Amino acid sequence: MKKSKLEEKKEQGQHQHESLVVRIFGFFNQYNKIIYGVAIGLLLIVCALLAFNKFYLTPQSEKASAMMSAPLDAMMKADSLSLMVALEGDDENEGFLTIASSFSLTSTANTAKYFAGLCYLKLGDKEEALNYLLKFKKKDDIYWYGAQGMISDLYDDQGEIAMAIKYCKKATESKDPYLAPVNLFKLGQLYEREGNWGKAAAAYQTIKNQFYAEYQKMNIDKFLERALINNK
Length: 232
What we know:
By secondary structure, the protein is an all-alpha fold. It has 2 domains: about 55-135; about 140-230, Tetratricopeptide repeat domain (Serine Threonine Protein Phosphatase 5, Tetratricopeptide repeat, Alpha Horseshoe), CATH 1.25.40. The protein has helices spanning about 5-65, 70-75, 80-90, 95-100, 105-125, 125-135, 140-155, 160-170, 180-195, 195-210, 210-220, 220-230. Helix 2 (about 70-75) runs antiparallel to helix 3, helix 3 packs antiparallel against helix 5 and helix 7 runs antiparallel to helix 8. The protein is flat and about 80 Å long.
């Protein structure tokens, strides 16, 4: 009896399925040692990472965090001697520089770089301030956007306006209702100095559109009007 097309398709599908299963088992039988080896290797890596985090990284983070209070207290005094103690430490406590270098895998070390940059800035050492602020990675948004604004100012002081604009733009990405409009205004001023009136106007317009409370205090309209006139 002749099979229907439906039956033929079913049989063809079963053969294909069986063929695929056979190939999978064949592949596994041929390479089972390699497969087991890779699986065991991955398991060992995961176990090593978990152990590293539990027995090394977590204790290091806790130790670094506990060490931060002394240099922070010294920094708050703001005089030159206290700022140097905050940076370098004293006979009893370590400073930001040691915390940043000795606990480099922790987020606390990253924050220590930011505070080291602030200390150098207050001491008038703009080169070292820029050096440490550039090392500060985007892990803590509370400080990061402010750091970008300071980096922009430091490049501006050096006459590197392109770099100043680059970092000022990063600072404007903050949603902080006080920090963002200030940096947007600074960005507009930088664009004006470049003669880029269109981008200057866009920065001022953003303050007007998104930060109305601060816009009312900053008298932005006269800057926006000037930028629009010069952009024609």
